[in-house]
Amino acid sequence: MDKVNRVCAKDEERPLRITRARARALRGITPYSRPSLKNEQKNVLRAHPKRAASSENKTSVVVPAVVQQKGRAVLSDVSNMCAKPHDKCTKSSKFQAKGVYTKKTTKLAALGVSTEVSSTQENVRAKLAEELSTIRMVESKDTIREGVTADTALSMQNSLKSDELQSSPNKDIHMIWEKLGASDSLTIVDIDSELKDSQVWSSYAPDIYSNIQVTELQRKPVANYMDKLQKDINPTMRGILVDWLVEVSEEYKLVPDTLYLTVNLIDRYLSTRLIQKQRLQLLGVTCMLIASKYEEICAPRVEEFCFITDNTYSKEEVLKMEREVLDLVHFQLSVPTIKTFLRRFIQAAQSSYKAPCVELEFLANYLAELALVECNFFQFLPSLVAASAVFLAKWTLNESEHPWNPTLEHYTKYKASELKTVVLALQDLQLNTKGSSLNAVPEKYKQQKFNCVANLSPKPVQSLFQDKV
Amino acid sequence: MLTLREKYYDFDQISSKVFKCRRDDQFFTMKIVSILNEENQANNGVPYWIIREISILKELDHINIVRLIDVMTDGPDLFLVFEYLDNEFQADFLKNPKMFMYPQMKKEFLYQILNTVAYLHARKILLRDLRPENILVNVRTQVLKIALFGAARTFEAPLEAYSSSVGCLSYRSPEVLFQFGCEKYSTPNDVWAVGCIFGEMLLHRPLFSGPSDVELLDEIFTLLGTPTEETWPGVTSICGTCALMGPPQQPKDLAKEFPMLNPDGLDLLSKMLCLCPNYRISAEDAVKHPYFKGV
């Protein structure tokens, strides 16, 4: 509940007017705190990432004099250097982000983050603040829709087009800033304005994701059904079934959503209905048939699902089971799965790279699919597993930098510390510490088309979660 | 668990597959969906469109959407129980002669349609087959209801590929009509359909009515002009072949085509019928358009 009830700032505190001079003094560093879910419902504000720069007299913005800040999860040294040779993803500068939100750094030292800034960087920042008058403070109504209120965030935005930027007299400063990494770890990027179809999507994305984060709580399978209900099957059997279904989905080239929905249906069925082990595969193919009908443009026919079981089950048996499953789940198939959140969170993670990093996407998907096979993971919310997969994927690709940042915290609504249990469990799967023989997912992601991401293995992630005294 | 006959009674046939029934002094509309084909074979189980329709309707609770109350199974049939709409609700709302009595009424109904579409899009749902036949209207109470979600589906971003052969031809957007590799469409497709309905409300005839994709595109370009890389970035790569584009045409003056519309109305119509889906107004923004001031 702490996450839900977090208070960003006291309502009664008198706001302080930020002038250009004060903005310079602040050097664009402004408070950032994750909003409460309650606030999120109330403060549905639209971002206007492409609005023209405000005139001189409109640049002031109201912020609270005092901002309450909770201690964040401990971070290791934050740098912008990529250590691994396979990390082809380079960091983006502040100027490439379309909508940027910056975070107060006052407590960073206490959190274990190095706050030393070279004199060059300090000078560059001062000079930038002085000379780049086109950077404006976005008014409170322009802050991002997903609940970042005027009290909790100020937006800094560069109104220059990239071509204007190149020809500007401050070009050298921009280049130096870019090389220095532009304190990228302290910004929240408006990821919706980055999309090709941003006009289409950005107006709905915040609503959609606040809706589905409510829905995921309602459609969760019973966490311990294997112990509580099932007598004839065990987690190993479920693992074998899902592992096989991964192969089936590859064979029939099904969209990833179909696989995730299939597993969701299997778990929801097994949460409430006793099943004999000889009918477990029947349940698996039936759930995949239903999921295919829901997700695919052209779903495989019933006969094909019978065929892949070596005709162990007849068409009639599959169709009878189809009705049984649909009745049991009350036809409620619009469920947020790990994949639903993964799309969003990968998008948020990509915002810190100049060019999209395909390895990051493949690796996060790989880790998420490993979680599908493992029985212990459905006790966690899909959004939590998705966030943890992104965390571990980023760490695997670049161990020189802490994988979590304000953008990811903002869009996932999880602090790094909240991911600990799932990240550690995911890394066990990634390193196969238990010596599992289920290899459909690793084999799939060892293929060249997925850049062989299953072959990557990181240093233990445990160190990121150790509290510093 | 109660059987169908125990739960509902006083069945009154409205059409071959639709019944009026009651439960606890409340009326409902029951739609029967048979899973068997003509040869009484359970061909491929529950049809995909039924699975989608039920699943989507279960998520929705909006005054302008026909509410699904219950789903029951009896043998090979599915029984969908909807809220009952009395005789005052007329299907195919543009065929209702009373529809055009007051200009304000058109605005009110357009607002309700857009409001509903915005609600659906915020829930990750594409209608894909929005047309007058699927809209019921009670002229007296001025309440509109959207029915038939058989073509609807959830969508993702970044966009996934969806079938490009959905929806009534006259209301299909240019990006769907350009079938060459353009299966990735999204919410603007529904907004285009609303724009077509808006035009139809004003002209008392379908805005575009070409019998085929190519002829329909030609009609669209005759009114709105042939798209260029400036007006629709990437259009040349989308359409794949210039044959679909036809000879270049200049857009017509919408003020002359729709003299009954005020400047705000013309602005809204042009934004809903913007050829480029990325530049087309969203339903959410359309609801806030100055045209609806006072609605």
UniProtKB/TrEMBL annotation, chain A:
Pfam families: Cyclin_C (PF02984), Cyclin_N (PF00134). Residues 336-459 form the Cyclin C-terminal domain. The keyword Membrane does not apply. One of its GO terms (biological process) is cell division. CDD domains: CYCLIN_AtCycA-like_rpt2, CYCLIN_AtCycA_like_rpt1. GO terms for cellular component: cyclin-dependent protein kinase holoenzyme complex; cytoplasm; nucleus. SUPFAM superfamilies: Cyclin-like. Residues 243-327, 340-428 form the Cyclin-like domain. Keywords: Cell cycle, Cell division, Cyclin. GO terms for molecular function: cyclin-dependent protein serine/threonine kinase regulator activity. Belongs to the cyclin family. Cyclin AB subfamily. Interacts with the CDC2 protein kinase to form a serine/threonine kinase holoenzyme complex also known as maturation promoting factor (MPF). The cyclin subunit imparts substrate specificity to the complex. This is B-like cyclin. It comes from Glycine max (Soybean). The lineage of its organism: Eukaryota, Viridiplantae, Streptophyta, Embryophyta, Tracheophyta. The gene is LOC100807750.
UniProtKB/TrEMBL annotation, chain B:
GO terms for cellular component: cyclin-dependent protein kinase holoenzyme complex; cytoplasm; nucleus. It catalyses: L-threonyl-[protein] + ATP = O-phospho-L-threonyl-[protein] + ADP + H(+); L-seryl-[protein] + ATP = O-phospho-L-seryl-[protein] + ADP + H(+). Keywords: ATP-binding, Cell cycle, Cell division, Kinase, Mitosis, Nucleotide-binding, Phosphoprotein, Serine/threonine-protein kinase, Transferase. GO terms for molecular function: ATP binding; cyclin binding; cyclin-dependent protein serine/threonine kinase activity. Residues 1-292 form the Protein kinase domain. GO terms for biological process: cell division; G1/S transition of mitotic cell cycle; regulation of G2/M transition of mitotic cell cycle; regulation of gene expression; regulation of meiotic cell cycle; signal transduction. Its EC number is 2.7.11.22. It comes from the Eukaryota. The keyword Electron transport does not apply. It holds the Pfam family Pkinase. Belongs to the protein kinase superfamily. CMGC Ser/Thr protein kinase family. CDC2/CDKX subfamily. This is cyclin-dependent kinase.
